[in-house]
C-alpha cells in the first residue's frame, strides 16, 4: 500500500473550466500518468453546502454555479489537514436530492492532490494553496452537448430542462465567474481533455515537481 512520505511537500493541482469542458478527462489522465496511489482527487462538487433544511423543490431550483454555493472553508480546512499528513472525511453530495448524504469518503494524504471543479480558481485562499493552476477550455457548443448527455443520463433531466438551465444559469454564471478565472491559470488546456500535447506537458511538469 502506498504511504506518503511525511517529509515530502504535498503538491496541490487546481483544475477549473466550464461545465462539460473535459476537466474529468484531464484529471483521469493525470492520475493514470503517475504511480498508482500517488494522487488524491478532491472534487469541488463534494463541497456544495448542505441544504437539507430547505424543501427539495426549492433546493433543485437553487443556483449551484456561483461561488456562494460551495463551502470553501471546509475544503480549505481539509486540504490543510492533508498537507499536515492527516486523513480527511470528504463529504458525499447527491445531485439528485441536492443535499449531502450521511456517508463520507476517507481520503488519505498523497504527494499529489488534485482539486477539480468549475469554480476552484474563484476562491483566493484556495488559489494561494495551489502549486499549479489549470484552466480546461472548450468550445461552448461542445460543452453544452456534453452537459445535455451527462445530465439526461446521470441526473434524470430532460434535454429541455438542461437547455433551459444552460440559458438561465450556466451560461451567465460561466461568463460572470468561471471564464474570468482563466487569467489566474498557469496553464490553459484548449480543446478540453483531447489536447494530448497540453496534457502531456502538464503531467511531465507534475512529475518533475515530484522528483524535486
Strand and helix map with partners:
Blueprint (H helix, E strand, L loop, with lengths): L10 E7 L5 H11 L5 E5 L12 H5 L11 H12 L4 E7 L4 E9 L4 E5 L7 H6 L2 E5 L3 H15 L4 H20 L8 E3 L6 H16 L1
Parallel strand pairs: 1-5, 1-6, 2-5, 6-7
Antiparallel strand pairs: 3-4
Helix pairs in contact: 5-6
Describe this structure in words.
- By secondary structure, this protein is an alpha/beta fold.
- Helix content is 40%, strand content 19%.
- The protein has helices at 23-33, 56-60, 72-83, 124-129, 140-154, 159-178, 196-211; strands at 11-17, 39-43, 88-94, 99-107, 112-116, 132-136, 187-189.
- The strands form two sheets. It has a five-stranded parallel β-sheet, with helices on one face. A two-stranded antiparallel sheet has the order 3-4.
- Helix 5 crosses helix 6 (159-178).
- The longest helix is centred in the last third of the chain and has 20 residues, at 159-178.
- The protein is globular, with a radius of gyration of 17 Å.
- The two termini are 23 Å apart.
